[in-house]
Amino acid sequence: MPVPWFLLSLALGRSPVVLSLERLVGPQDATHCSPGLSCHLWDSDILCLPGDIMPAPGPVLAPTHLQTELVLRCHKEADCDLCVRVAVHLAVHGHWEEPEDEEKFGGAADPGVEEPRNASLQAQVVLSFQAYPTARCVLLEVQVPAALVQFGQSVGSVVYDCFEAALGSEVRIWSYTQPRYEKELNLTQQLPALPWLNVSADGDNVHLVLNVSEEQHFGLSLYWNQVQGPPKPRWHKNLTGPQIITLNHTDLVPCLCIQVWPLEPDSVRTNICPFREDPRAHRNLWRAARLRLLTLQSWLLDAPCSLPAEAALCWRAPGGDPCQPLVPPLSWENVTVDVNSWEKLQLQECLWADSLGPLKDDVLLLETRGPQDNRSLCALEPSGCTSLPSKASTRAARLGEYLLQDLQSGQCLQLWDDDLGALWACPMDKYIHKRWALVWLACLLFAAALSLILLLKKDHAKEWLRLLKQDVRSGAAARSRAALLLYSADDSGFERLVGALASALCQLPLRVAVDLWSRRELSAQGPVAWFHAQRRQTLQEGGVVVLLFSPGAVALCSEWLQDGVSAPGAHGPHDAFRASLSCVLPDFLQGRAPGSYVGACFDRLLHPDAVPALFRTVPVFTLPSQLPDFLGALQQPRAARSGRLQERAEQVSRALQPALDSYFHPPGTPAPGRGVGPGAGDGT
């Protein structure tokens, strides 16, 4: 039904340009073209089937540019519909092939071959128009006289009047020829919206304000707009204006659209999608997204709207460790538990939770298939993928023979299967139970023997227990404490300074781990896996993790705290500090860091106040000025502070001083007290 003129004027404005929109009288479509061209419009719409691109047999007409213009199609003086006029600009593409006889012999070609070059060109141009809920395709026949055929030159345009569309709708237009010789042109345009339909926010809620007259009856529909397939309706109701409809912020998604229309025959429907760029809508979309396993070779990401994302398969060991990539990988296009968008981890799910049950201590076996039916098996562990069978000292290697037997006997569950390989889950419960049964049996035998000895020799037993207690205490004091040193590799000079500090600490009763001394393992395992294994071992043994802050480390920490991920950029393959932040931050955020972490920075390089506040929840020492306190924090928690602490601090300071001088005063620069210029004497 035509829209009253006063509504069109409200939507389009009162400017002279808008009020001078051309008016078309009558419902018939029409076409016209540039001078010299002839064009004809087919009587009825056609099917929208572009077809495949074909090679051009010679010069052809091709659409080069689409141009639109808003016009009014009026049934009466005051009742008009908004209409989109489309102009298709055409040019001559391609060329005639030279005859072989003329190329080889330089002679004149057959006069009959020249005749097509002097003929006119014809083309069938298709215009495809989409504006929810309608779609149309029309066919325009265009003929260009021979006098206008100039290769690569524009020959003019053909204009179609017109495609009707609703106010506020988004229209999409394509143009191509039949047959199709080139990629189709496309154009998207947003038409003006009616001012009586507004969206406003009130705290966590969203208001749809429909400011229409009290006697106006209209329909309101909420739906999810889909890139492929029909829209999914969510809510529909017939109302009488004016109305204010409240939506909860949790219902917002980017593809949520609103459709409004008067309850009259053949009324035009207005559509708007106001939440496409709303951050809350995008967060809700990922919260509603779910991964679902269909078969052993396919998966489905269920979400209200289309999602641009990348998927990858990873695995996680019990204990809340980060999900680690498969090495070697399976076909990542077909399976996922990690979904990333805009360089952020958005979704992580175990697709096989229904078949595996709760997370338990299973072993994942990765089967890779090569040419000529060659296959290999490895077991996924935090240190990497251990080949089976193997003589390594890992748990999977020790049980490799039993795991292979379980796989052959069908006791393992197949999780994935494709041309590249397969993934299996093999239970470990029975082996763990057997091992603990032997341990308990040995403990019982030892307790029985000890009880018998105590009964036979009470006095000797007391003396033996006293000596044993002293040995345990002295042994605990003598054992060195593990320390994991983390730093940001700002430059080669800073790395040498870190190496000097680590070497100096090794002279004390400390077992220092630093990536500088483990480059081979770091390259084989990857920074994340290497750090995770070192951190776990250090903390399990009651050690301490030392965060050595520098300007580069502070910048990386700030990026993680602001965005949740490290900013993309060039970094070395051994940058364990960048890789470690994903595991370090949870310890600080959940309050587990005190007692297990300490911080440090060099006096003239960084002030402690520059360290992010989150990391100052543990002690942060400046070196070398606070070396005694720093070394005291690295001691065992129950170790007594002895008079040797100051002596050890002086020892570390002496070992560290040459590296500090080299870093802060490189060769070729004046040393402190030996500068040049006014006031720099010779000391005599």
Task: Tell me what you see in this structure.
- The protein has 684 residues and is an alpha+beta fold.
- The chain has 4 domains: 23-95 and 119-190, Immunoglobulin-like; 197-281, Immunoglobulin-like, CATH 2.60.40; 300-429, no CATH class; 481-561 and 574-664, 3-Layer(aba) Sandwich (Rossmann fold).
- Helices cover 28% and strands 32% of the residues.
- The strands form 9 sheets. Strands 1, 2, 3, 5, 6 and 9 form a 6-stranded mixed sheet that branches. A 5-stranded antiparallel sheet has the order 4-8-7-10-11, with no helix packed on it.
- α11 (492-506) runs antiparallel to α17 (644-664) and α12 crosses α13.
- The longest helix has 28 residues, at 429-456.
- It is elongated.
- The N and C termini lie far apart (105 Å).
- The N terminus and C terminus are likely disordered.
Layout of helices and strands, plus pairs?
Elements: E1 3-4, H1 5-12, H2 16-19, E2 23-25, E3 30-33, E4 38-41, E5 60-74, E6 79-93, H3 100-105, H4 111-114, E7 121-131, E8 134-144, E9 154-164, E10 170-177, E11 185-190, E12 197-202, E13 205-210, E14 217-224, E15 232-240, E16 243-248, E17 256-262, E18 270-272, H5 279-288, E19 290-295, E20 298-302, E21 310-312, E22 314-315, E23 324-325, E24 338-341, E25 344-348, H6 353-356, E26 363-369, E27 375-381, E28 384-388, H7 395-398, H8 400-408, E29 413-417, E30 421-426, H9 429-456, H10 458-478, E31 481-487, H11 492-506, E32 510-513, H12 519-525, H13 527-540, E33 544-548, H14 551-563, H15 576-589, E34 597-602, E35 620-623, H16 627-634, H17 644-664
Parallel strand pairs: 2-5, 31-32, 31-33, 33-34, 34-35
Antiparallel strand pairs: 1-6, 3-9, 4-8, 5-6, 6-9, 7-8, 7-10, 10-11, 12-13, 13-16, 14-15, 14-17, 17-18, 19-20, 21-24, 22-23, 24-25, 26-27, 26-30, 27-28, 29-30
Helix pairs in contact: 9-10, 11-17, 12-13, 13-15, 16-17
